[in-house]
Every structure is written in structure tokens, then in C-alpha cells.
Batch of 2 targets.
Target 1
Amino acid sequence: MIPFILRRLTTLVPMLLAVTLLVFILMSLAPGDFLTPVKAQRDINPALIAELQKSFGLDRPWYQQYALWLGNVLHLDFGYSWTYKVPVAQLIAQRAPATILLSITSLLLAWTLAIPLAVLAAARPGGWIDRLTSATAYFALAIPEFFLALLAVWMAARTGWFPIGGLTSLDHDFLSPAAQFLDIAHHLILPTLVLGLGGVAGTLRVLRANVLDVLQAEYITAARAKGLSEKVVLFRHVLRNALNPLLSTIGYAFAGLLSGSLLVENVMNYPGLGRLVYEAFIREDQFVVLGSVVVACSLLIVGNLLSDLALAWSDPRVRYGR
Amino acid sequence: MAADLLRSLLRRPAGMISACLLLLLYGAAILAPFLSPTIPSAQDLSRTYHPPTALVWQNGHLSVRLYRLVDPSTATYEPLPDQAAPLRWFSHGPAYKFFWLIPSTRHLFTVSSPATIYLLGSDATGRDVFTRLLYGAGISLSIGLIGVALTSFLGLTIGGLAGYLGGWPDTLAMRLTEFLMAVPGLYLLLALRAALSSRFPSDATFLLIVVILSALGWAGTARVVRGLVLSLRERPFILAANVIGQRPWTILFRHLLPNTFSYLIVAATLSVPGYILGEAALSFLGLGIQEPSSSWGLMLGQAQDIKIFMLNFWWLLTPGLAIILTVIAFNLLGDALRDAVDPRFRLPGK
Amino acid sequence: MAQPVFPIALCALLLLSACSPPPKISRQTHPLPAGVDIARSEIGRSGGVFIDSSPGEPSTFNPLVSEDATSGGFIGLFLDSLVHNNAVTQEVEPGLAARWDIAPDNRTFTFHLRPGVLWSDGHPFSADDVVFTFQAIYDPRFPNRAAFDLSVDGQKFKVEKIDDLTVRLTTPQIYAPFLETVGGVGLLPKHELEPAFRDGTLLKSWNVSVAQKEPQRLLATGAFRLRSYQPAERIVFEANPHYWRADAKGVRLPYVDFLVTKLVKDANASTLAFATGQTDAEGLSPDNVAWIDRYASRYGFSVFNRGPSPNTGFIWFNQNPGHDTAGKPFVTPYKLAWFTDRRFRQAISHGIDRQGLVRGVLFGRGQPLWGPETPANKKWYNPNVTQYPYNPARSRALLAEAGFQIGPDQKLHDRQGNLVEFTLNSNQENQLRVNMATAFKENMRDLGITVNLSFLDFGTLVGKIQDSYDYEAGMLGLTGGGDPAGGISVFSSKGRLHQWYPNQKTPATPWEARIDQLMSDQLHTLDYPTRKKYFDEVQKIMSDETPYIYLVTANAYVGLKDRWKNIRIPPLGSLVWNLDELWTPLLTP
């Protein structure tokens, strides 16, 4: 198993090199750079722009810039944000908790809703629960996330039941710890629903198929023959076996952590990494973009590795192959 | 084989309904210039943010109600009592070109000036939202088809070659697909769009988006096709073909690839929504289709504007609903196709 | 299966916690400084939280680094300057300098600082801080924007400390906007920043990280000091206990305890926050006023019309006669001939239905614009510029005079028979501008002119306009207002933003030469009527020659909760001019 993990992790390095190089080339091909909006201001001196260009290294050809960045990365220095003038690592660390929190809550939502529903649906295929859930799942998978996010914002604006955007209220600093916790929970409800809905539908469909598969197994027939109640058969025996493949979704959720919520975060005004990354792309804040690409790519590879490991652990038939 | 597939598809109600729905949507998109009462660029600055015009039955004609601008500062309109203009069927209106070729001025329905018909209201410069929705359908829907065609072609060729040839082409192709699948897609999309946009005129953005989406999307198809070809390669009929000395290309294109078609059709149908949603997301972010063209994603993006949000909510709903309907139809069709192609997927109890 | 109960319980608890009491704070009471400034406004009551929102994050809290208006606005809250540019009256008022003398040479300014003023940490503010600030600005190790603003033709100002409370600044030549420029310089605390100045890390100090972790290090002389900064969430300022202003009863200003700014992603989110009662003040665009009124009574706010905004919008044609390195002209020669023909530009101007734009796109809340300044700039606006009211007949006459004619295809052709067609470039981020461009296209079609629209990313657009010059027509806006000196890069033919033909070595036309002369003359006299006369002529020439075809200017609006008293809303700039005098009888929102 260890060689398997090591082998997978060694692919990370060339992959990161290739991806960052690609993104770097694309960014240098893009018209304008970080200083372009500054150039368009009417009372700024060209000499200052030249100075800034020099201090950002924007006066050099792109391959030199890339080599410089790469050299710094070897010393674990990911550069600093031109916008915020702070190290990129610091900036990402600052925004990451909000995004991780949202990922966890939406994954939890997906599981808590999908597991019981899938079992109930599969217990009687073609029954009304099955029809209703599968119709809803079709619908949920068809709604573009950003459209759902828009609807949520509109709903919040019209009813005032939920805060619009943010993770904390304005008076958060003055609240008691318990109230602070509730405040955050209140802010999380809508983004979690929006981001979790697709997860619910996806998990539901996979799990339902799994449960149906397991139901065909001989040991289930045996369990029924023993005279166990249907509830016990379903939730004790069937579910346990059907859940195994789902373990891998944790890894995938991890993999999609950074890009999964980008649109939703932007529409819903959520203070996470997605907003930071999108703004960095728009402003061409080079090192933030590269830093986030490194993080996203690593998460993707490590996340996929984790799901493979989880799968192998839960199902002995899967072996560590190539 | 195709006829069988179609027959077994149409026997399933879900497949039947979704196929009809898609026919209807694509039909509307193709006939958009004829079906819409005007052209998407026609403005009327004195009728901005017009509410949807009500249709009434008057003097034996289907008529459209007339409105008066009560307060320009808040775009408040009120219907004029008992005043309506009859719809004129198959009448002349603004000129357009059918299929970019045949000039015509005939529209399914128009109203005579100065009355206007805004089935879904008007936008910030008094353009008809219904017309823009129909024209937008053309872009949003065709992106799915073209994209899938490109992806399938790339996937089939690269995957088929890799699987059949083996050796270094296989290794190269698989490393490439692994790379593409490990790149965070959205980031690459953002970077690609930024890098390429200025190199193309605005009108070419449409093609650019298709190409970008396909360039990122073929990897999955290629891997599956390769797998299928690998397993087919050992089948007796291929071995037989080898034995009787058919040339490798003939074997690949005559025998191997056709056997992956049924998989491809299902996969293609199920991946069309991805392209439609991808275009919508890009346009929504302002990185896709641009004014004065229209697409569903662009219309949704413009609906983000807080004013439209609070004043004219139906604006927001229509393109969104159109996207949802299309995606559901494609997913249902894909599932029905899969059931038809591979009965093992059929669920017990059905 | 106990999970579903949890969210329900949560919601119930939330409803309870929603009514949290307002924060209680006790103001530290420090004696007022000897040089205290007594506010002439109505006497109010201390306390309360003022909430606004900002579409955009501050990128720094260091005035030497700040390049954007958002950061500049936050810095202005805690760093005070020698003098203030009163945005309401457009006059210069005393700030940290109680008064100043101008020597007869009109180049030497002596500032007398307020005695007894302390930084927010209790350290005295003195002439040393002023000298230190200029030293930091002029230091070549720290390239910054102010260094260029505070110099004339590359020559720095001379800064001398006379005594602890007196500073003398000398400009190398007469420099008209001297006081306004000095009014924009936030003075830095020497005792706090000198170490960073010495070891060369001054530009890294007071960054967003410091603001987040050690907000108390951002010393203040302004009405507020930073209390906390939560990126992408909010910035909280609190009353500066050492602020140097008080009301007539001797109560130290500011009245409000806290100034909370909600950080949101864009202007839409910001407006939405106000419309749903979350914030106290918001700048509103005309199209938003159209619907926001209906929430006014529900959340208790009113919308104030500030009058015309200082923002201009215009279309221009590329008149650059040059060619690229491959020898290809930037503009096709026969098109360049149209663009450099004044009659062609005037005809276009007459063909634009500005009233229609105002009515349709701006909901009637705006006015046509004919010159480079909008009426918002009361001090410098010239109302007597040439106007081009909507008149297609006049357009056609002008075009005919210039040799254009309508062909059998109902399209306009020039004398050589070339079809009159051009591509208008604009940026796609601004929906209002997109709407104007599509309306312009329709207007031009009536004249037989074909306009193709191209909406680009802002970066691409600026690249075309300023670097590659390969475009035919452009549409952009500039924020006007303020001193004419700020417009030099636009009006002077050498200017970088002289967009129709930038960076000219010698003026291409006599009228551009005249503008160059006027812009230079107005800079070198302190006499307002003379400067006004010069700048009026610049505006007149711009309207006569129409290198920029000005479109419309929207009115600006401010929404403000009714509970706030002592409001003074300036026609341009910040939403509320006198945040320190603002007070409310209702402490809870």
C-alpha cells in the first residue's frame, strides 16, 4: 500500500509543474496585466507605472518570471499578492476555513438526506417514494448551481428570513460565543442548501442503485429467510454494504473543494476561497492565481488518492493496482 | 440497429416525452426568426422594462393589451382599459435571414405599430425578452450538440487509436488524459478564456467556447473508448479479421469503433447538459457569449443585476427554466437510451 | 435518525438570538487638545453604530501603497491631513493645521499645526510627523503615487520644520492645486513607522495582515481608529478617543461609537444590503432608485438626490495617424479622414438621442452632457459649451456638407463610395454602458451608418486604447470633478489619456495646441477667476471640436436611514461628508 501511495504522490510533482506552466503561459497570453486598470486612471504618472512594473517583475519575459517563481517555490515561498501585498500562503490560509466549513456542511447535508431517502426508495422500487425522489433528483441535477444561488439570494432578499451573504453578522464581535455559533449557522443555511442539493441528488442516485444491487445478494435473502424484520434487513445489512462505495465521495469532495463552490460563493457573496480566486483571475493577480492552482491541483490528486484508498479499504476485492 | 434503438426508445414514456420536448426546443431554436415577433436587436427606448403584455380575446381576434407608461422614473406601466391590438398572423415584420441565407420578413405573429407585443416583457433598452430567449436558444442548444460532436470525435479517434495501437501512442494518450483530468477544470476555463478572447472577434466567441469546452471534455470519452477497444480486440471476430489479413485501419474503423457507438450515443446524450451548463456558467460570469448576441447564460447573468432582480423577476426565471427543462430532457433521454441499449441496466420492478 | 431535529432547534434558537442588545461601550475621557476645533453643527448625542457597505476589499491600509479609491477611503477615516478639501463647498478648510500663510511669492506655504493634538496611542502629533511623511513619500526606495502628485515637472517640494508646531512647504514654481493636493496627504506617525522607514520595509507595513492581527498599530489622527478587520466580511472602526474636534458643548466628536463597513462583492450586493435594511447609507445609481423607493418606509430610509454625478461617458474616434511596427496604419486611411473631420464628429453627435437615453436607460434621472465637466463640479463647470441636440436632419446636412451621401442601398457612403461602417469598442463589465452602446448603434442606423459593437474585457480594451491603437472607435467613462490639474493627462496632447491621439510629440491641430497652452497656464497661477477663465475655454474647445462625443450624465443618489441627524451630503465623493458630526437619537437600528 505504501508504494502505491508513494507512486501516486510522485505523479504530483510533474503534474503541478505542467499545470502551473500551462496557466502561466495562458495568463501571459492574456491581454493586459495586473497594472492595466492602474494605467487607465487619469492622474497617475507613467514613471510610477514603470516602477511598479519593475518591482512586480512584469517587465521581464514570461519564462523568466516563471523561473523566478519556481525558484521561490522551492524555498516554499509562493510569492505575494499584488493586490493585498501579503504572502499568498497567508492569504489562502485566511480564506480557506470558510470554504472548508461550507464543504463539510454541504457534504453532511447530502448524506443525512440522501441515505435514508435512498434506502426507502430502493426498498420499494417504483413506489411513490422512489418516483418522487427520482423525479426530484432529475430536477435537482438539472438546475445550474448559480441559478439556484440566485434564487436563494432573491428569496433571502424578499423574505428577510436569511442573511444575504457573509458568514457572520455585523454585530458578531459583540455576541456571546453561543450566539456567535448560531450566527454562523444561520449564515450557513442557504449556501449549504444551494451547494448540497446537487450532492443530495447525486448521492441519492448512486446509493439507490447500490442498495438495489445489495438487495439481490444471497446473504440478504438469507437474512430475510431468518425472519429478520424488513427494517433491520434494510438498515442493518443492506445499508452497511451499500454505503461502502460512498466512502470514496469524501475524497472527491475534498478534490473539488476549491473549484466546486467558486460560482456559488461568488453569487452568494460568501467569504471563501472561491471569491478570492475569482477576483485574482479577473485582476490577474499572478501569484494568487498560481498559488490557488497549486492548491486545487494538489487537492484533486490527493483527494482522488484518498477515495481510492477508501474504496480499497472498504472493498477487499479492489487491489492496489496501477 | 438505429431503427431498433429508436423503436425501443419510443416505447418508454420518459424517452418519448423527452425526445418530443427536445424536438420542440430545437425546432423553436431553428425557427426562432420566424416564431419571434421582432428581431433581437430592435430597441424601443420609450418602452424599457415593459411588463409582459397580456393577451385578450377581443372582437373575435386574439389581441394584445395596450399599456401606458405611468411613471418613467420607476418604469411603471398600466394597461389601458378596453384597448387592445389584434395579433396579425403570418404578417410582415423586421427583416431577417433564415438559416443565415434566405431573406424574409414574415413572422408568425406581430401587432401593428404603435402597439408592441412583449410576451415576456422588455429589457433595459426596450428589446423583446421573448425574442431574445428564442434566439438565445439557438446558441445555448447548439453549443451542446457541436460540443458533444467534437468531444465524441476526439474521444473516439484518440481513444480508439490508443487502444488499438497500444505501445507508446497509448501511453502518451493516457498521460495526456490523466493530465487533463487532474487540471482543475474551471481554472483552466478561466485562464483559456482570458488568453484567447482578444485573439478572436466577438462573433467567434461562440465557437471559442465550444472548442474550449470540448478540449477539456474529450479525456473521459477517450479513456472509455480505449477500454472498450482493448476488450473488443480480444474478441473472436476481431481475431478472425486479423487472421484473414484485413488491414489494421480497416479493422479499427470497420469493426472496432462501430461496436463502441451504442456506448457513445448514450454518453453523448448524457454529456450534452454539461456543455449547456458550461456555456451558461461562462456567459453568466461575463466570459461567454456577448451582447448584442443573446444566450440563456448571458440573460441569466444580466438578471444578476439587482434592479432586474427586484423589479422584473420573470426575466430571471425564463432562461433559467429553459435551461432546466433542456437538461432534464437530455438526462431522461440519456437514461432511456441507456436502458434501451443495455438492458442489464434496467432496474428490477420496472 | 435524530438529525432533522437539529436544524429546527437551530432555527428556533436563532430567532431568539436575533434580538441581541446593542454593544455598550464606555468612552475613555481624555482632555480636549488646546487647539480643539469646535464644530458649528447642531449638538447631538454620543453613541450608535453607523453601518455602510463597500463593494470591494481594501487592498492595504498604507497610504503610500494605496492605488484604489476603496483603500483610500478607509485610510482617510483614520489618517488626517493638514487641510481638508470640503466636498460640499469645494473649498479648502483647516485640518491638522489650524491655519496657514501664503507668502507673496505664491510658492511658500507656512502651516501652523493645532497644539495639543495626540495620536490615538497618546503620543503627541508634531511637525516631525509632517516632515517624516514627506521624507517617506519622496524616498526613491518607496515608489508611490503621492511622490508624483507632490512635485512640479519632476521637482519636489521643499519641506522644513520651523518649530514643533510650524512647517514650511515651498513649491519649485507656482503650483495651482497645491492646497488641494496637500489635503489628500494623510500624515504618518513618525514614532510608529520610523523603524520600517529605516530598514526599507515601509511599503510592507500597515498591510491587510497587520490590520487583521494588530489593528491598534494603525495609529489615527482622524475621527476613527481601526478596531477590527475581517477580510471579505467587515471592517469595524471605533471613535478615536484623541480626536481633535468637539461640539459646542465640549463633547468630543465623533458622536458615533462604531463605524462598521460590510464588505460585499459588488455594487449589486451593496445596494441589496441597503434595500433590505442592513446598512445605513448607500450610493445609488438612477436605475436602482427606480425600485428602491418602495422599501423606503419598510426600513425607514430616504433617498437624496445629489444632482448630476461627476462621471462622464463618451464616444470617440481613433484619430491616431501613426502605424504599427509592420507599417500598417492603426486606422484605415479613408476612415481616418472621416474621423479627423470635425463635421463628421458633429454629425454623429447630433444623431444621438440623448434624451431618449436619459429617459429609457436612466429612467429620466440624468441629463445630456455636452462637455468634459458635469454640473457636479460646481467650481469649474462651464455651462456655456456648444450643444448638439438630437437632430437627424442636421446630422444629414453636416454629413452631406462633408461629402457623404446615402447610396441606393440606403446606407451612407463617403465621397469615394466607401461604406460608412465602424466598430465601437467598449467594456462589458458596465451594463449601463452596454445599454448605451446598443442604443447608439440603433441611432446610427437611422443615419445609414453601420456600427459594429465589440465588448471587451477592460484589460483588453485598455490595451487597445493605450498600447496597440488598433481600433476605430471607443466608448468609456471618466470620473471628472475636482481640480482641472487632474485633467492634464486627458486634455494635453502629450497626455497618456488623450485617447483620440495620445502621447503626441507636437500638437496635431491648432486647437490642441491652444488647449495645451491653456492647461499649462492654469497650472501656474493661484488666482481662481483666471484659472476658471482658462479652463472654461478648454471646455468650450472640447465641445466645439468634439474629439470626445459626450453622452449623458446620470444623477447620483444617496440612500440614508432616517434616524441619522446632522447629515451633509456632498455632490461628489463620499456619501456623507461629516461622519464625525453624525448622530442619532435612536441607538438601536
Target 2
Amino acid sequence: MYQSTITITLRPSILDVQGKAVELGIHTLGMNEVENVRIGKSIQMNVNASTEDEAKRITEEACKKLLANSVMEDFTFTVKKV
Amino acid sequence: MNAPTLKFGVVVFPGSNCDHDAYHAAKHVMGQEAEFLWHKETDLKGSDVIILPGGFSYGDYLRTGAIARFSPIMNEVIRFAHNGGIVIGICNGFQILCESGLLPGVLLRNRSLLFSSKHVTVRVEHAESKFTGSSAAGDLLRIPIAHGEGNYFADAQTIASLEENGQVLFRYCDEFGEVTDESNPNGSINNIAGIMNKNGNVMGMMPHPERACELQLGSSDGKKVFESLLNSILIQPS
């Protein structure tokens, strides 16, 4: 069994209005060092696979078919044995 | 002899909330046949037109429309559309059509981050479609919007091809028909409010024509969309 941890973010070309609003909030706290806030999603799931490569393949397929929409999102993931 | 009628199939997903409005507009206002189609069904029951209604299918989890797109009935809807069947997606229905690949692009979070519920003015871009034939280019329709994710986005190439092929049917504008940034309620590229596919049989729009079919509701301009459909299908030149 493997566990995949997937991070999905808006593509850099897309204005992340949520990130902008949060950045404004951080600046209101006086933390002006913070910039380029981007909000994304983190998805964790277990994958019944016999090898790490197979777990990666299944995870990638799930990302492409459902978890991320390539028109607006990018994804990265890591896989570890559990 | 009874006048010929169309059968509207209104798909109901868990979380749809404009299904009854669409059913009412088709059946009681336009005098057509209408039937609800539960999302787990795999039969479109002889529908001539499929409506994917507004709402919050699957609670908008993951992305709007992302999970509804895999409901069993969507396989049939996609097949129907590929065979030239007429499919209309309103609001959440538009989002589902984009997720399913029947229409290009995606609906992002409104640039204001706020859910926006109000009447807007949209301009009919041309009358050369099944959905706008009863209007004239430049006609203005007062129709309500009610969405948090209506900010239409697609890459530059896709937008250029939509514009070039006349696939943009409705644009947000001011009361004089001018397409301005102030009249854009959500940040959509080129003020796009509604588009159709290249073949002209699949249409998605964020405003709700089905909620604006009777004067008691503040506007009956939405009827134009349904009238256009009826005229283009029932009164086709032979």
C-alpha cells in the first residue's frame, strides 16, 4: 500500500483572487515581507499498488482525469510506502 | 390537431436547485413536455433537449461540476451531444459542460470572491444560433445571475477561436449595450456570459434564462432563449 499526497495549485497565469485576499490580510498584520500568496488544495489518498511506479501511475491518472483541471490547475505529488 | 412540442429532459443531480425552475419554464411557460432525469439514470427518455440546471451539484466539492461530470447520466448526455442533440447548461450546468469537455474553458472563482446574485444585462452577440434565433444581434436581455464561480476563463488561443467562430452568444454589458469592465460581474474574459460549441448544439451560460420567463419575476427576457430553441427545431425550414 502506498500513500499519495497531491498538491493542486492554480496555474501561474491565473490570478489567484483568494491568494490576493489572504496576502492583503497578512499585510494588515504588518507582515509585509510576505508576497505572492497562492492558495491550493492538498489531497491525500491510499493506493493499493504493488510497486511505487504503479502507485505513481495511478495517482497521475486520477489527477489528470478528476483531481485537477488542466485548464486552470497544475499538480504535483509524492508517493510513500505505508 | 395539437401543435408539435419538444420534450425537455431536466437532469437532477444531488444539489441541483434550479431543476424545478427549468421544468416550470419548459412545461408551464413554454407549453412543452418536460421530465426530470435523475443523475443515476442512463436513459434520456426520448428528450429532444437536455437541460443541465443550476445549483451546487455534489456541494461544489473539488471543483464546481467536477464530480457531476461523472454521474452515470452524463455518459448518455455526452453521447447525445456528440450525435448533435441539443444540450443547455445553465450556471452549474455550464460548469458541468466545461468539466465534461463539451464546452471549452472553465469557470473560475468570481474576481470579487463574492457570491453574486442580481439581475444583469447581457447582449445577444448574433442571431445565427439555435439559442438566439428569436433575438437580433445587439438585443439586450435582463436576466439574473446567482453564482460564486462564473468567471469564464480559457487560454488565449481558445478565446480567439471562440470569437472567430461566433461561439460567444451572450456578453455582460451595461444598460446601453456597451461591454464595459463595470458591467462584468465576475471577471469573465471578454465579458463572456454564454457560449456554444463549434457545432452549435451545446450551449452554456451563467445567467438564468429559466428564472426570467414571466413578468411577475421581474423580467421575461429569458423566454427568448426558449423561443429561439422552439423556433429553430419546430419550425425548421424544410
